Amino acid sequence: NAGVMQNPRHLVRRRGQEARLRCSPMKGHSHVYWYRQLPEEGLKFMVYLQKENIIDESGMPKERFSAEFPKEGPSILRIQQVVRGDSAAYFCASSPPGQTLAKNIQYFGAGTRLSVL
Amino acid sequence: RKEVEQDPGPFNVPEGATVAFNCTYSNSASQSFFWYRQDCRKEPKLLMSVYSSGNEDGRFTAQLNRASQYISLLIRDSKLSDSATYLCAVNGMNSGGYQKVTFGTGTKLQVIP
User: Fold this and answer.
1) B72-90: per-residue pLDDT in tens?
2) Taking the CA of residue A51 as centre, how many other CA atoms within 13 Å lie in the half-sphere pointing to its CB?
3) Which of 49-108 (B) contact A at CB < 8 A?
């Protein structure tokens, strides 16, 4: 049973380009979460998605960032017109459906490290 | 006040020492609590869940104090391999009625030979 798969592991973009980060959840998991981590800082929640639905995007910047989790295929975090401040590690986590509030365990992918030149 | 707060450290301790970290949370309705371990430039990995009055797993003990709204992680007989950042995570309901896990910024532990 493969874990949460993220690709690419490293992504280099020039200012103004677009970045697309992909996340395939663990088999059987239908909940996906995206987090951003700046160097020497903690995990910042960005967005929580279920298949074809954005559940909570309270942590997403209002502009340039979008996320989707289509019926088929991986979840995509898209950053348009990247700026140097977008350089960070972006982690995806997944959890299975039906977890109670007391047992909402998230499993993390290895992350994508975005560098904006 | 931050939803989840941790002392960033670093905690520098000698091998064999006992070390404890605390994590405070602001939402009294929080339901579940976790400790994750994150190695440098790696993803967080679940270390322990803390469901009620606490639990123990080998050298690691996690405690929950609901009255004071904090959780703790105790590591006994520290090993060099315990060097990492320890993140606490708190699960509760957000204003939209959905579960939301909030992470602390982590406490860095360095075990010294």
Assistant:
1) 999 999 999 999 999 999 9
2) 9
3) 49, 51, 87, 89, 91-94, 96, 98-106
